[in-house]
Records
---
Amino acid sequence: MKFLLDFDGTLTNIQTEYQSDHDKLVKRMAEIGIAPERFVALFNKAVEDIMQQPTAYGWPDNGRLTAFCDEDIFMHIIAGIMRIDEWIASDDAAYDDIRKALSDNHVSLMQVAEECHLALCHEPLDAFNTPQPEVVNALRTLLDRDCEIVIASNSEAQRIIEKLEFVDLKPVAHDDNPSARFRVRGHAKKYALDDNPRPVQFGNRTIDIARSHYAQIIREERPQVIIGDVFSLDLALPIEMARNDPMIYGDMQIYLRTRPYTPQWAIDCILNPPEDCPVIARLLNHFDDLPNLVLRR
Ligand SMILES: [Mg+2]
């Protein structure tokens, strides 16, 4: 049995990393002259605002949204910053202090946010940014049962491998050995949208599945199990591939790794998949349930 797993948020708990990213942003803004209480209040207002219109804000790629801001807490930062940028671009004098601080320091808010996110990727490894113990146990059980495990992440492979080695797992990079049983495929670009949109309705959301980078990975790997924590990025495309090509992908099992930030609409998409969808779709509320769930068809 072959597994295609997402990494961040699926094998790790990103809550603490999000907090660290948020705190870096507040600290960096203080360095350029915006008091922490001022920036936190502004950021909270922006997040509250985008969460009221989650189909309008999220992670942009190729001029469209590749995931919605209510699907993942890191997207609160990207989309929250976009919202503040809109306010800054207006002529509202209420944002003069932010405009002045950014202009005096010759930076944009998005540049500051990107700097902070990049710094997060260089933090020392610890329990908070590496796979959780129940994940490690479940992966060991699957490997012991001769399962193949491929981790596909938008991050670079080496960083993911270091995080897995930190918890005594020994994967190899896909580029070094594409037939290894336990591999990491970095730069998976699941977020990357093609030029021509392919909108598909899932419940009350329209998700763009024009993701040829990710489709190529699914075609090459032909996994029986796909697991991810962000419906738009990880699961919408394979569900649609199975609907269009049930002879090839109809035996797949699709799992949404639920987290405190998982939106209800994504849970509903898994609990009520399209009628003509041949795959088994389930919630994965506890990672240690995985070995038993996958074998129970
Ligand atoms: Mg993820």
---
Amino acid sequence: MPRRLAPGLFALCVLFAPAAPLSAQDSHRGAPAAVDAGLVLPRTPADLAAGAQLFQVHCALCHGAKGEGGKGPTLAVPALPRAADDPALLRLIAQGIGGTEMPASKLGAAEIAQVAAFVRALGRLPVEPVPGDPARGAHLFATKGGCTACHTVAGRGGAFGPDLTRIGQRRSAGYLRRALLEPAADLPQSATPYRSDVSLPENFLFVRAVLRDGRTLAGVRLNEDAFSLQLREASGRIHSVFKADLAALHKDRGFSPMPAYGDLLAPAEIDDVVAFLVSLRRP
Ligand code: HEC
Ligand code: HEC
């Protein structure tokens, strides 16, 4: 039974509204359920079983069947950085995290409370350790790996690939390992079909623009509208072209310009780089 929106929560919605085009889009399909900040999480075995089932259907795709993580971060940890307490967890599930792949939920308030209770139960399971040495990984990142050519961490590095400053908070260790071994396996993008088609920073799309004079510009799409396109070459140079000037425009969906590191780094070095990436989170 949805309760009335608490005044504090209402203020929060207003605060987040301009930064969250995704939630605005989602609201066409039904507004996120209101969550009462004072709600206590249900604890009966029946509620936990219902929560587990809802989690499999609505969350496991990104967070793993046991909350071990995947495209979304590991939830089987004692403290969630984004959800310090239960009201914060309920709000986060109901509203999603604006501007990220974490969607607003279409579940009702009682179901959200059951899923939240299940997420907290996952947090009581033992955490899987990540092998590897983060300090060695940081060194490899800047040297042999050549990662800084394309990625920024804490304001330093290239901008061809996504900013990795807080990547350990967004992705699980398993996902990060796969990103290194099979870069094309899971390109960062939204699950919303609408967003995979518009130009947002997390929707990486490799494009090749063939100009009428025969030259080809290849890089990551930054922006696109009906008449023009902006792309960033691997060198970092940004080009803006009018579509009328193009002989052809190829969109290489599913192609990753990032090298597969299984051939370039030893298995122990991959472990070190993964440990470094996992350590990149807000203190
Ligand atoms: C389409 C993928 C996707 C789905 C489906 C999804 N999540 Fe997420 N979730 C994410 C991502 C990605 C993040 C991290 C966002 C960021 O920080 O950039 C996240 C973050 C979170 C966080 C914050 C974790 C932290 O470290 O504090 C919680 C809690 C969470 N999700 C719970 C859920 C629950 C519960 C469901 C199901 C009702 C769900 N998510 C469904 C992708 C997803
Ligand atoms: C030639 C440029 C290039 C190099 C070099 C490169 N990357 Fe990438 N990387 C990209 C691009 C572009 C993407 C986004 C699209 C994709 O996955 O292909 C990406 C994606 C990623 C992702 C996934 C990010 C997410 O949000 O899902 C991780 C993690 C990553 N890179 C880590 C690394 C590490 C670690 C190295 C060095 C060992 C490295 N990259 C080297 C270009 C590069």
